[in-house]
Amino acid sequence: MDKAGQIHPDLYFKVSKPEFLKQTKILENSINDSISVDDFSRKMNVLINLLGDAHTNVFFSDNLWEKYENSANRLPFKIKIKSGKIFIKSSDSKDLFEKDEVLSINGIKTNELLKLVKYTTFEVSSFKENEIEKYFSFYLFMGYKFEDKISVKIKRNDIIFLKEVELHKRDKQNVYNKYSFKQINDTLSVLTMNSFAGINKKKLL
Q1: In sequence order, what are the residues at sequence separation of 6 or more whose Cβ sits closer than 8 angstroms to the Cβ of residue 108?
Q2: With the CA atoms of 195, 135, 67 and 46 taken in that order, what torsion angle do they form, in degrees rounded to the nearest 10?
Q3: What is the chain's Cα-based Rg?
Q4: What is the pLDDT of residues 5-23, one digit of tens each?
Q5: Domains (ranges, CATH) in the chain?
Q6: Which of 45, 60, 149, 155 has a CA positioned 20 to 30 A from the CA of residue 197?
Q7: pLDDT per residue as tens digits for the range 104-117
């Protein structure tokens, strides 16, 4: 972080330097020899995002990205965050309806699920929530992982109940290509970028 402090014009504009160094020390003390690359990636992501600077961030590990990309499982619903609550915005599941309130997923309560914003790099709270709404499946996987099913506690018309929801199987043949590369001749090639999200720059270059 010393290097970042030298380069950045105002690195600690959102969080004070003493507070950030305090959180850095807490992170250091929480790390042991058995920590996985994935967990270390999550911890570092959360720490750097305390800076509240979208241009200063740590990407999730290649290992986590590959696990997510290779997983065929995706949530069968979209969410809407409103007043600290999570609602179903649209659903392909027969058990979940639009406007259902999500109280928990796999026992993880709403207030904890909303903390997934700590994995986003945006500075404004509303932008953070919009990011979680748009890519909830991704952030839920990065934060807590999930397998073939999830258990969702729902509130509908003041009635609370639990539903086991099957995850969608993604058709890997129809996955949106983030980029394409074509060699025209010995001196000319064309790289077409469709999205920079989740690109493994080492492999690309």
Answers
A1: 144
A2: 100
A3: 20
A4: 666 666 676 777 788 788 8
A5: 2-69 (no CATH), 73-169 (2.30.42.10), 173-204 (no CATH)
A6: 149
A7: 999 999 988 888 87
